[in-house]
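Posted in: Structural Biology > Protein-Ligand Complexes

Title: Requesting predicted complex, zinc ion in pocket

I'd be grateful if someone could produce the 3D structure tokens for the following input. Sequence and ligand are given below.
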Amino acid sequence: MNDTSKAPINWPATLMLLLTSLPVILILPFYLWQRDVSAAAWIWALVFLGLNELSITAGYHRLWSHRAYKAQPALKWFYAVFGGMAVQNSILIWATAHRVHHAHVDDVDLDPYSAKRGFWFSHLGWMLRDYPASKPDFSRSPDLLEDKVVMFQHRHYLWFAFGSNFGLVMLLGALYGDMAGFVLVAGFLRLFVSHHLTFFINSLAHCWGRQPYTTTNTARDNDLLAVLTWGEGYHNYHHLFQWDYRNGIRWWQFDPTKWWIAAWARVGLASGLRRVPEFKIQQARVQCQLERARAAMEGRSAHARYVELKAQIDAEWQHLTEAGARWAHLQSEKLTAAKEQIRSRWEQSEFKHRMELKALELSVRLQHRRVALLLRRQIAMA
Ligand SMILES: [Zn+2]
Ligand SMILES: [Zn+2]
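-- Reply #1 --
Done. Output follows.
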């Protein structure tokens, strides 16, 4: 491991975080004690908070870091302005670093905000020094270098950040006749809250919650965190299927970023929304369960009950492997049909295939319940 603790201090980021936090900690409480802040300042603080967070989650993150969908220029400009207002660096730098995070997740040297270096480091510490992992490697982002909105915002980032945070907030303060209230609440407090809610995705979403889809990294699914982070709390799913425009894939899961993207798709400002096939999601869930079951069986006695349980787990594994192979076969048949332009022939048999795909999906869904029962038995035996 590199001795990165001696990395030089990143003064611009450190000063920015310090100077935007101090008024919230040192001035705001006394101001609220002595004076009233207008309702308009509180309402605009919430509006800006929502717009900033959505620009980060739907724009910086799902659009630019992961290309989970395509957006029309109007939507991109919106993200560039309100994402710039969130003061989390330019889209180019943010998205490039985030791609490195996914490629090297948890690696203490290569992941810029590795959770394996502790909560504080992944939340905030990584920004305070010029760690080698944070050095932007734009060879990962050729698509972003060609995106006009991204490059314009990158070149004029300070204008975006200062113009929105001071210009816009002070303009509203003047209009409503509550300059100090607007600067403190819709300006500093809103920015402080927005910062830490986003930072939670790198810290809390890598240590607090469940791991239904993969245990190969520290990412977690957490419903409460999803509420605080505009849907980004389903981070375990996200780290396995990063290009899905959804993070909370179930209808009941709180993912306003997903609803926002889907709403813009309806009016034509977003398109090409990418989804992981349901079968793949179910397969990942059952595989994760079975890996857990197998790990728990290791080192167990050769008692007949365990032998029987182990045989059942092996059979389930076999079932999953076969279903996966059949699914892959059906998909490749579909692709070949499209490639060879024999669509008509494919379409004749499409109904049958679709039914078979549905049946496979259902069989793995049922398998998930079966294996859950096995796991319960296993725990009871332990
Ligand atoms: Zn992550
Ligand atoms: Zn991501």
